[in-house]
Amino acid sequence: MKKHALHAAFVVAKHAVVPMDLVAVDVTTHHGAAPTSRRLYSFLSVGWGLIADVDIESERYRSWGNARFALMALVKIAGLYASWVAR
């Protein structure tokens, strides 16, 4: 922990600024009669969220071994394709 704090202080003192990608994701939910939409911002890749979802949701299929990741990824991607509208 001490090492990280020292490094962070050095970067701030040196003013070592690096450009960072920012992702905007528009999310529309259909609860009730009228759909609501909101914009979410992320500085990490949206793909990492998909990987985390696959990992967490595949826990119930742990007995399938590593195949559970591939199968759950296909399920998640198919579900995203069916529910998301690309612009």
Q: Can you give a write-up of this model?
A:
With 87 residues, this protein is α+β, with helices and mostly antiparallel strands. The protein has one domain. It is 48% helix and 16% strand. A two-stranded antiparallel sheet has the order 1-2. It is flat. The N and C termini lie far apart (43 Å). The model has no long low-confidence stretch (mean pLDDT 79).
The strands making up the biggest β-sheet line up spatially as 1-2
Helix coverage percent: 40-55%
The residue ranges in which pLDDT falls below 50 over 5 or more consecutive positions are: none
Choose one word for the global shape: flat
Estimated structural class: alpha+beta
What proportion strand?
A: 15-25%
- Distance between the ends: 43 Å
Strand runs, count: 2
Secondary-structure element sequence? HEEHH
Tally the structural domains: 1
- Counting DSSP H or I runs of 4 or more residues, the number of helices is 3
Largest sheet: 2 strands, antiparallel
Mean pLDDT: 79
C-alpha-based Rg, rounded: 19 Å
Task: Summarize the model shown.
The chain has 87 residues and is an alpha+beta fold. The protein contains three helices and two strands.
List the helices and strands and how they pair.
Blueprint: H1 2-14, E1 23-29, E2 36-42, H2 46-57, H3 67-83
Main traits of this protein?
alpha+beta, two-stranded antiparallel sheet, 87 residues, single chain
